[in-house]
Structure formats: structure tokens, C-alpha cells
Amino acid sequence: MQEFFKKIANAAWFQNSITAVIVLAGVLVGLETYPGLVERYHNALHIGDQLILWIFVAEIVVKMAAEGKRPWRYFLDPWNVFDFVIVAACFLPFEGNAVTVLRLLRLLRVLKLVKALPKLQILVGALLKSIPSMLYVSVLLFMLFYVYAVAAVFLFGENDPLHFQSLEMAMLSLFRVVTLEDWTDVMYINMYGCDRYGYDADSVVLCSSPVAQPLVGALFFVSFVLIGTMIILNLFIGVIMSGMDEAQSEAVELARAAHEGAPSLELELDLLQQQVAEIQARIGSLARLAKHKE
């Protein structure tokens, strides 16, 4: 029976069918965003969703049965744990406003595509490997934002209170600048003064102390864009590319080991358990022999 279920779990048709069901699940969740379709085809959508849910349950059962007498090995794979949590959460009783939570959980089933497509697994693995390095880059970026935000409040707070009246608003405005979203408008407000640029009839009341700083404004925002966008944000790309290389190297090594018939983790565990059992038996026999001599 174990071999039978293992053949099914490893079969290409089974994996492709699950992938197709995942795509269909994503389509059904998307259709539920249209109230007219939900009202007209409520029963059909509900039946389709239940059918998909039980197909995923069958997938879990098949993969656990493929482990034979050790079904808990199914949970040794983090992706299997992810699948199990999503499917199990869909059986929780949701009523009233909590139905939105159920819809979001069903939407997460689309993420099962990451497991179904090996290339996506490499991408996710690269992102996970990059997290420690990205943390330090994020700290550096936060320091840059903090220094420039404090300086912006002192330099431009009176002229441009809409963007730099407080520290938190200054950091939010600088986030807009670093994404290059109309950042020149923010720069021109402080270069030419809020009375001459940027403030419309609704916000002109905030422009009570216009101050034009052409040189300071240009140097401040151009330097921030150069450092924040052109240098630090590119560090994120470099970190992710490094993680991508590591993930691809690991994938190649795993594929090579599988092709050359290298012992799998399960086989190594079985061998170790065998050796432990032999050692325990030997210890037992020596203990009996020592007791007999006494």
C-alpha cells in the first residue's frame, strides 16, 4: 500500500492535477469578488469550493499514506505543513464577519503553486536566505531616513508643513521621495516656497511662513535620492541575487545527488536507527555477560 500511494504522490499526472486545481481555486476566489456572480451562481461556486477543498484533503491523505507506518514524516517538509495548515483552517467554523477571514484563507491556497512549481521554490528559498542580510540593509536604510527626516523638519517644517511638519510625516514623505513618486514636486515646494509652488486653494492655509531655499532644497533631495534609491535600495537587489545564487546551487546539488543515487535523508535515518538498535542489543548482551560472571 505504501508503494502504491508513493507512486501516486510522485506521479506527474497527480502533481499536474493538483496544480490545475490550485489555479481553479484561485479563479473561484477571484469570481467571488463580483457580487452579481456570487448571487447568480452561489450554489455552483459553493459546490466548486467544497470539491476543491476535499481534493486538497485527498492530496494530504495520499502523501501521508505514502509514508507508510510513519505518516508523521509528512510534516518534516515545511511546505507540507503550510498546505496542512491552510486546508485545516478552511474547516474552522466561521460565521458573520469572520467569513472574510475564511475567504482570505481560501485565497492563500493559491500560494500552494509555490510548492507545485520548483522554480518558484527557488525564488522563495532565495528570499528566505536573504532575510538576515536584508535586515542589516533595512537598519542602514532606517538610519538614513531618520537622519534626513530630522534634518527636513528643521529645514522645511515651516515652509512645507504638509510634508515635514512632524518627524513621522517627514519619514512618510521621504518614503514617497525614495520611491520616485512625484518627488520633484516636494523638492520644488521647498526650492521656490509654498506660496509659489505646490499648495492649492485647499491647503494654502497651511502655507503661513513660506521660505524659498533653492540651493539647500536641491542638494537635500538630490543627495537623498542618490543615496537612498541608487545605492541602498540596490543593496537589496544585490542581497537577493546572492541568495538566488545560493538557492540555485543547493537545488543543483540536490538534483545531482538524486541523479547519482546518493542516500536520501530517510535512508540515512533508517540506517542510523538500525545502528542504534544494534548498539543497544550489544550493550544488553554485554550487560548480561557481566552479570553472569559476577
From TrEMBL:
Listed GO CC annotations: voltage-gated sodium channel complex
This protein's record includes keyword NAD: no
Pfam families the UniProt entry points to: Ion_trans
Residue ranges of every copy of the Ion transport domain listed in the record: 12-250
Presence of keyword Secreted: no
Keywords on record: Coiled coil, Ion channel, Ion transport, Membrane, Transmembrane, Transmembrane helix, Transport
Topology of the protein relative to the lipid bilayer: Multi-pass membrane protein
Residues spanning the membrane: 12-31, 135-157, 218-240
GO molecular function per UniProt: voltage-gated sodium channel activity
Any coiled-coil regions, as ranges: 262-289
Localization, UniProt: Membrane
Protein known as: Voltage-gated sodium channel subunit
